[in-house]
Amino acid sequence: MAHMVFCVRNKREMEGLDEPPFDSEFGQKIYKNVSKAAWAEWVDRQKMLLNEYRLQPWTPQAQQFLVEQMEDFFFGSGSALPNEYVPPSH
Prior knowledge:
Blueprint (H helix, E strand, L loop, with lengths): L3 E4 L4 E4 L9 H9 L2 H17 L7 H16 L15
Antiparallel strand pairs: 1-2
Helix pairs in contact: 2-3
């Protein structure tokens, strides 16, 4: 049976992640409160942040920035887009 959570982003009961994304207290918080769908949204947001800010994800500064953005994305105001961001046209 699927792991179900009340998703903090989508405000409804949804299928949760298969396992915590990190081996930490924050990883457990995400596992208990974030759906697979919301996590997929975050992955797309993270890619955009990496590209827009030209972050090097292996650096501690970039990792800290991404964790802060993730916290805000799921549990805060939603994480603002960069001022210069232009969504791709399809």
